[in-house]
């Protein structure tokens, strides 16, 4: 039975490799997600599709799995949208905040004008109003993670400068009598030595502290170019290992 199952898997993977080579759902060096596994395509063999993950590891996915899987190809369309959320105070104006954040994102040189950046109120909680911001980039010219990071910093900076509060989630804890997870110690009379001990020092945020907060670096100095380290590793792997590759860059792509 074990031999039968092994032969069955081998035949399934081989047939799937033929179908994938005809369909060509991805090319070598494409960044894809196959059943939630992300990586850059190295090659397609008769048994498996080989990816290099973002942390540099080899990932072999059986072709039978790839053929039936949901495949997301990030490289096919160079235009890609990122999004992130920021929270403002419940007493702040969400319409003004969305407008300010969108203008801040649109001011970044790597953000596409079409489709334009956008935003919407995602949730109104007890301690904050959550706003989701979105922007589009060209992945051939701009790194996705860098662009998202810079846009997030820029939007947050502009909202803070315009007086919007950026609260963190707060929680109220209530302890009923008799259910405390610790034992209350009886207080003892304060001695002279205790009075001389310095208490915790309070830190008051001054205007000078706020002015010293670092701003997003100058737009002209932003390095948002795509990272090539992973692509270089994939290319080295393709050159070093002369293994069969059923992917053909000249064939029609699905």
UniProtKB/TrEMBL annotation:
One of its GO terms (cellular component) is plasma membrane. It is a multi-pass membrane protein. The keyword Transmembrane helix applies. InterPro entries: LSM_dom_sf, MS_channel_C, MscS_archaea/bacteria_type, MscS_beta-dom_sf, MscS_channel_2nd, MscS_channel_C_sf. Residues 208-224, 242-254 have a biased composition (Acidic residues). One of its GO terms (molecular function) is mechanosensitive monoatomic ion channel activity. It comes from the Bacteria. It holds the Pfam family MS_channel_3rd. Residues 83-164 form the Mechanosensitive ion channel MscS C-terminal domain. Residues 186-254 are annotated as: Disordered. It is found in: Cell membrane. Residues 9-75 form the Mechanosensitive ion channel MscS domain. Keywords: Cell membrane, Membrane, Transmembrane, Transmembrane helix. The keyword Cytoplasm does not apply. Residues 187-206, 229-241 have a biased composition (Basic and acidic residues). Belongs to the MscS (TC 1.A.23) family. This is Mechanosensitive ion channel. It comes from Candidatus Electrothrix marina.
């Amino acid at each position: 039975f074990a031999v039968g199952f092994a032969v069955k898997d081998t035949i399934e993977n081989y047939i799937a490799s033929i179908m994938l080579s005809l369909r060509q759902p991805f090319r070598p060096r494409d960044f894809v997600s196959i059943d939630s596994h992300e990586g850059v395509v190295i090659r397609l063999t008769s048994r498996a599709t080989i990816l290099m993950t973002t942390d540099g590891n080899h990932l072999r996915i059986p072709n039978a799995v790839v053929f039936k899987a949901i495949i997301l190809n990030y490289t096919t369309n160079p235009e890609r949208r990122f999004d992130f959320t920021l929270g403002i105070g419940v007493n702040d104006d969400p319409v003004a905040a969305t407008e300010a954040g969108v203008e801040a994102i649109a001011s970044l040189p790597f953000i596409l004008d079409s489709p334009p950046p956008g935003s919407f109120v995602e949730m109104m909680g007890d301690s904050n109003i959550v706003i989701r911001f979105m922007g589009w980039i060209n992945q051939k010219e701009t790194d996705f993670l860098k662009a998202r990071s810079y846009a997030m910093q820029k939007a947050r900076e502009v909202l803070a400068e315009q007086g919007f509060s950026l609260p963190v989630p707060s929680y109220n804890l209530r302890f009923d009598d008799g259910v405390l997870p610790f034992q209350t110690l009886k207080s003892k009379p304060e001695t002279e030595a205790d009075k001389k001990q310095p208490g915790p020092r309070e830190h008051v945020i001054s205007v000078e502290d706020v002015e010293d907060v670092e701003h997003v670096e100058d737009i002209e100095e932003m390095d948002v170019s795509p990272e090539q380290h992973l692509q270089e590793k994939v290319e080295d792997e393709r050159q070093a290992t002369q293994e069969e590759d059923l992917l053909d860059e000249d064939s029609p792509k699905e």
